[in-house]
Write a structure and sequence with these properties.
Layout (H helix, E strand, L loop, with lengths): L12 H13 L6 H14 L3 E5 L2 H11 L5 E5 L4 H9 L3 E5 L10 H7 L4 E4 L11 H11 L2 E5 L7 E2 L2 E2 L5 E5 L12 E5 L2 H10 L8 H4 L21 H32 L5 E2 L7 E2 L5 E5 L5 H10 L29 H6 L3 E4 L7 H18 L1
Parallel strand pairs: 2-3, 2-4, 4-5, 5-8
Antiparallel strand pairs: 1-9, 6-7, 6-11, 8-9, 10-12, 12-13
Helix pairs in contact: 1-9, 2-9, 3-4, 9-12
């Protein structure tokens, strides 16, 4: 039986050689490859500052804390729990907005309904490779004098109106193995705000303003005085080396994803029980995930299990939504009606998608879906 996992990282000899180079250098902790990765990432996005760290969760946390947000942050409940967790650990309170049915991205109308004097920021979570409606979100933010933090963990290289995600507000990115580029574990925070950049640089490394690498050639390289209370959110030099090589392949990998997604969408267009991803004309989708919706008359969970039996690593993102989880129960966390969120979580299915897939894998998935649906009938 053919096996098609949900995702396989697109890693080659270049990444292996880069890791060996760092190992041979003896510089394993945060070091020169971090700087190279950060500079390359900032250049790619066209922003002033980029800071590599151990996760996107840490990037969100430092965005909230670094911006001094202590009130409410509006974000979708339809996201991985890390998005909301990081708002809280950063010192603020999440407020849960509903999503657009077609794109599963945060609904600007829902954001408007939730704004109160306690609201300080909006945090869109770009879902599965497609940007949220940043034109509307930035207009709302300007109208109400709100900050914007973008959770772009799933949309590295995605665009809205020709502008890359993570460049509208403070950008937060993930390099988990399922993402558009990977370092195994890792994240990046991007910003054009010099004051925020200064805070983040210190906060991610124990509150010390200069890194070990920056102190290396100083007369007193051992001087390590903290200017504030901080954390150890650093990314190792070894993982940063992988990121440097992955970044070189980002456009190639995203183009492969788009090509494979187009082929899969074509195959699924013949199946009335399945709705392929909807892509807005103003967006450039990078298909970190390929999510479909199944007819509500079908048993979605059994559909996924039956695909798994055929070797297809289908899954569900995101179930349960955050507002269903135990830590987020009760009146302390405000939320919109979330009717669309409640509908989507019963219909959505994530199919395998990664740059190394073959056309035959796509054809096998389409045929398997047809067979599973015929079994239901």
């Amino acid at each position: 039986m053919r096996k098609i996992p949900l995702c396989i990282p697109y890693v080659g000899q270049e990444e292996k050689d880069a890791v060996n180079e760092v190992i041979d250098s003896g510089w394993y902790a945060h070091g020169p490859k971090n700087r190279e990765f950060e500079e390359g990432f900032a250049d790619y996005l066209g922003v002033k500052h980029a800071f590599s760290m151990n996760s996107c969760t840490s990037a969100i946390h430092l965005s909230v804390e670094g911006l001094g947000i202590t009130g409410e942050v509006i974000l979708p409940s339809f996201t991985f729990v890390a998005s909301a967790n990081a708002v809280i650990t950063g010192g603020a309170r999440p407020v849960f907005a509903d999503i657009e049915y077609e794109t599963c991205n945060i609904d600007p109308a829902s954001i408007e309904r939730l704004i109160t004097p306690e609201t300080e920021a909006i945090m869109p979570v770009h879902f599965g490779g497609q940007s949220a409606d940043m034109t509307s979100i930035m207009e709302i933010a300007a109208k109400h004098n709100l900050l914007v933090i973008e959770d772009s963990a799933e949309t590295i290289g995605g665009e809205h109106q020709g502008q890359l995600t993570g460049t509208f507000g403070v950008g937060c990115f993930s390099f988990y193995p399922t993402k558009n580029i990977t370092t195994g574990e890792g994240g990046m925070l991007t910003t054009n705000d010099d004051q925020l950049a200064h805070k983040v640089k210190a906060l991610l490394g124990h509150g010390i303003d200069k890194t070990t690498y920056e102190r290396e050639d100083k007369e007193k390289s051992w001087f390590r005085s903290a200017s504030r209370i901080g954390y150890n959110f650093r990314l190792s030099n070894i993982l940063a080396a992988i990121g440097v090589e992955q970044l070189k392949k980002l456009e190639l990998m995203n183009e492969k994803r788009r090509s494979l997604a187009a082929l899969l969408t074509l195959g699924l267009s013949e199946i009335p029980e399945i709705t392929p991803p909807y892509v807005k004309l103003e967006n450039k989708h990078v298909y970190q995930m390929y999510t479909v919706r199944v007819n509500q008359n079908l048993d979605r969970d059994q559909f996924v299990r039956n695909l798994n039996k055929k070797g297809i690593g289908a899954s569900v993102h995101f179930y349960p939504p955050v507002h269903h989880m135990a830590p987020y129960q009760g009146d302390i966390y405000r939320k919109d009606g979330l009717e669309i969120t409640e509908k989507v979580i019963r219909e959505i299915v994530t199919l395998p998608m990664y740059p190394g897939m073959a056309d035959d894998d796509i054809h096998y998935m389409v045929q398997s879906i047809k067979e599973v649906l015929s079994e239901f009938k």
